Amino acid sequence: MSRSNRTSQKPFSGQIFIKKQVGNRKAGPRRSQMIPHPPKISNFEITHSVQLRFITNAVVAQNITFQNLLDLILFTTSAVAPFDLFFAVRVGQIKIWSDPIGNTTSTVTLIYDGAAVGFVGDFRTITDTSMGIEPAYISAGPSGQSLASRFQVSSAANAFALNVPANTVIDVQLNYRSSTAGNAVAAQNASVGAIVGAVAFRGLDGLPLATSKFTLPTGLNQI
Length: 223
What we know:
mainly beta
């Protein structure tokens, strides 16, 4: 063998190098995916949180029932037969202002006196008296264990009681809920000459406009 051939050959190192094949691997079977079911729906009912204002046009000393509260917002199916727009109600906060005239004083009282058999609320009495030019003022909500703080349907059960003079301003914060079962509740008192197919309002005593001791702000459809 020539010298040139001997020098061109490299000695064997004992290692064998295999070129790695580059390319896409054969795809394996795909994992099947579960089609999710439709999500739950929990808001078919109509809910409404609202603060309503009333001005007394006479002395008020009476209980306000859950029937009265549901009769505050009505739907007029005829000129004389309104229905409650909502099916259940609960009380949030009540605020009362009474301004004295001249050098007289003015006292307002709010009582959460709702009760049922085996279930009695706080029977809390809140009162305030004006002094000088400062009006009598109350801001109070029912306790968490009282009837007024839970959703109630139309009934003669007491939500709270008021004892206030004329020209008292009362703000009532309420939470309403409709029925999805087709329940229809007629207002306790008929109306006279109401516009058919309209939303209308009443005072806290549930009486028609002509006899109610509560006046709503100007411009609202009070029947």
